[in-house]
Amino acid sequence: MAAHARIGFVLLLMPILLWLVLLIIIPHVDMLLISLRERVGVGEYRTSLANYVTIATEPLYMRTFMRTAVMSVLATLITLLIAFPVSYYIAKMARGRVRSVLFLLCLIPFWVSELVRTFGWMILLRETGVISQFLQWAGLVSGPVEMLYNDAAIMVGLVYTSMLFMVVPLVTTLDSLDDSVIEAGYDLGGSGWSVMREIVIPHAVPGIVSGCIVVFMLSLGNYLTPTMLGGKDSLWFTEMIYSQFIVRFNWELGAAFGFMLLFASSVIVWGMLRLTGQTLERTMG
Amino acid sequence: MIPDLECTGLTRRFGETLAVDDVSFSVPAGSFFSILGPSGCGKTTIMRMIAGFLEPTSGDIAIKGRSVLDVAPNKRPVNMVFQHLALFPMMNIEANIGYGLRRAGMSKGDIARKVDEVLDRIGLPGIGKRKVDELSGGQKQRVAIARCMVLEPDVLLLDEPLGALDLKLRERMKIELKSLQAAFDTTFVYITHDQSEALVMSDHIAVMNNGRFEQVGAGQDLYYRPETAFVAGFVGDSNRWRGTVERVAGDAVELRTETGLTMRAAAKGQAANGGAVDIFVRPEAIRLAREPGDLAGFDNRLSGTVGSLLFNGAASRIIVESGEAGGEIEVTLPQSGEFADLKRGAPVHVGWSAAQANCFAANGG
Amino acid sequence: MIPTIPSPRALNLIWTGYVALFFVYLTLPLAVVAVFAFNDSQFPSLPWEGFTLDWFFGDAAPKIGVFHERSILGAIGTSALVGVCVATLSVAVGTSNAFLFNRYKFRGRGLLYVLMLLPLVVPGIVLGISILVFSSTVANELWDAAQIDAELLRPGLVLVVLGQFSFITTIATLVISARLQKFDTTLEEAALNLGANRLTAVRTVTVPFLMPAIVGAAVVAFLMSFENFNTTLMLVGSDAPLTIEMFDRLKEGSTPLLNAVSLLLMLGSSLLALILIAFQRRS
Description:
The structure holds 3 protein chains of 3 kinds.
Chain A: H1 3-35, E1 37-41, E2 44-47, H2 50-57, H3 59-93, H4 96-111, H5 114-125, H6 130-137, H7 151-175, H8 179-187, H9 192-220, H10 224-230, H11 237-247, H12 251-276, H13 280-284
Antiparallel strand pairs in A: 1-2
Helix pairs in contact in A: 1-12, 2-12, 3-7, 3-9, 4-7, 5-7, 5-10, 7-9, 7-10, 8-9, 9-12, 11-12
Chain B: E1 5-14, E2 17-27, E3 32-36, H1 43-51, E4 58-63, E5 66-67, E6 78-81, H2 93-103, H3 108-121, H4 137-149, E7 155-159, H5 167-184, E8 187-192, H6 195-201, E9 204-209, E10 212-217, H7 219-224, H8 229-234, E11 239-249, E12 252-257, E13 262-268, E14 276-281, E15 287-289, E16 300-310, E17 317-322, E18 327-332, E19 347-352, E20 357-361
Parallel strand pairs in B: 3-8, 3-9, 6-7, 7-8, 13-20
Antiparallel strand pairs in B: 1-2, 1-4, 4-5, 9-10, 11-12, 11-14, 12-13, 14-20, 15-19, 16-17, 16-19, 17-18
Chain C: H1 9-35, H2 54-57, E1 59-60, E2 63-64, H3 70-103, H4 109-117, H5 124-146, H6 157-181, H7 185-193, H8 198-227, H9 230-235, H10 242-252, H11 256-282
Antiparallel strand pairs in C: 1-2
Helix pairs in contact in C: 3-6, 3-8, 3-10, 5-6, 6-8, 7-8, 8-11
């Protein structure tokens, strides 16, 4: 490399290294170290696995952890199932103006804060809410119905919040499938279902994977939706992190929680990439 | 004998525009039929109607004597090689070729056998496990054809499949396609805008323009005996003039071009006194000479100078600048050596017979 | 399946109906939020008590409108400040990253690229606590070692900016990289050939080409910062940005004031989106 290119290279390397090292790598290492600390007296600590032992032996923690993971997987699957036909419609069936309008409509929730979206669902679902009133007005129920503060409400909120992150990658990959490839499938005798199964879905795998990864991540790390729609006893892992850090001020245990969350999400993301033969660069970049 | 494919009165509108206008033709079994035309002439529309991806506005398509209008594309006994081949990138070669057989419900063992067989036939044995993007352009081409041929279709449609290839490969694939067609003994319907592809491979060619067939015939017919001005201009190169008829004597006419040249020509179709005509003379139909006396036998003679030499091996030409012609005339340079020392600016004489000058009544544009 | 392939009418109808239903689902929550901003009632719910603009302009209790509610206005200001800082920082670093990955081949490039993507797959709340933990560690060390009270490293706006910056930069990098990849480097060579030096060539040819992506990344970064909740929640000090302020109020029970704020937020974002689209059309 010539001298001036070398200077340019170093100058460009500095910001990214500062960013990644100071804000990502060291903080996470520090968090790991803190999580491995056990308080033995005032201002006295020693290194041990005590926090992790606590998590493993306390049924509430483990249950919450598993519940969060399972619900997130479920939310991801539901989002995929709902989003796929819509994405296919936008990418392959709609044409011209309709198509771009529909795609823009899908982006709308992104432009609105998650807080506003959740607030909207609260207005719809609560006992005095719009849906309850509508059902009473229609004579389908005799008294107010509380649809808030249960797992179904959490699921509705999670799916709603994540929808965009599934639709966009799906539309993008489906769009890149040439119409003639689908036509070729028909021309060679394929039916709607077999073309879908053997051609469209395999082609969409990168989009499905990146959509699922993002949706899973967002659900697992979501705090607002379970808290607001699930109520006090929603038992979401992020709520436990929050309460250890902010309410109980037990940072050691909180850091251990945080690390478990990070670990769980990494394992599932990695597993999903492995299973489908994708790489992070290709699905995210 | 019943033709493999027969279209009658085939018409397709897109809103106001008439993409295909009352086209009828039939393709005899086992022949190579091409539809040749500029882009936008409606040839792709015809092909997609035959494959079933477009419904005709009116008219009928029959395959082996049976109308297929009510048959869905996945049930028609025709298969198509798409413009960009449309090989399934998510499958390997074997799965690509076996796709249609699996749809037909054939057993795994039979599929494997058939796939191997067809890979042998296209000269690519043992590539079944490879991925689509590991193949070269020519190999992909052959796989795309094999993928259709295992299904033993009555008619194979090819939508400009050579368009994406580079020139050298395209030349080779022309010959290869022709021999594949002979080997499979299947009816091929081929659409292209490249006249050389059509001329080299086809038994019959339909020249298409503005939604209509201008002329259907063997390559030689189109080249030597064009029936319309469009065919004369589209197939092969020509010197072209516009002019007015001054005298008619049977098929022979005498006319004056807009550039002021008097010429004798052969009229195709109606030519009335005073009517506007287009005249086409092929560069190779014009004889080049150093002495005017050598051209005594020709009906039309001119003198001029060599404007430029366009060297292109066997297809070399010169441009003759001539005051009499009021412009430039392209003339094929004979390769016998007598003009090897021709230089720019040298005086030359050219001549051509009336029979080689095809003249058609001009229609506006 | 696709328009060129004939398919049963019923299937097409069902499919279209499903898509229509989907968009109802998508817009319903936002629509009710907007509508109840105009309800002349203490609660954002039915029955409809009549139309009012008090939740925007009202200045007397119990109906104090957005424009007279100091804490909300303050929170909007805080959010805007944080958003501008985050957008500026992340676009600057993102542009630098895009050039680095686009122009240089070096050892560890692949690894660095994966590292650059990682913040996207780290839950926001984990990003928040890790930065909180680390900054406290540093602040404590400073105090122990030199009795310096590093106020900036305690929960507050600086940490909020850093926390949001830590993952929004990845997005800015991806947006700008995508456009830089489409850049024809021979244009830069042409500029050099015509007498520009390296830096001038980049400034006069490459940067104008990147401008739509840079503006786009800035708008997206600003919006993401404005809307961010998870990371902010862990790092916030006494000055609450709007999302946190609204969250606290929502926990207490909601009034149509929140609907009014939400509606303004939606309008603001739409305006930004329109400006962005117009800008990208033009260039």
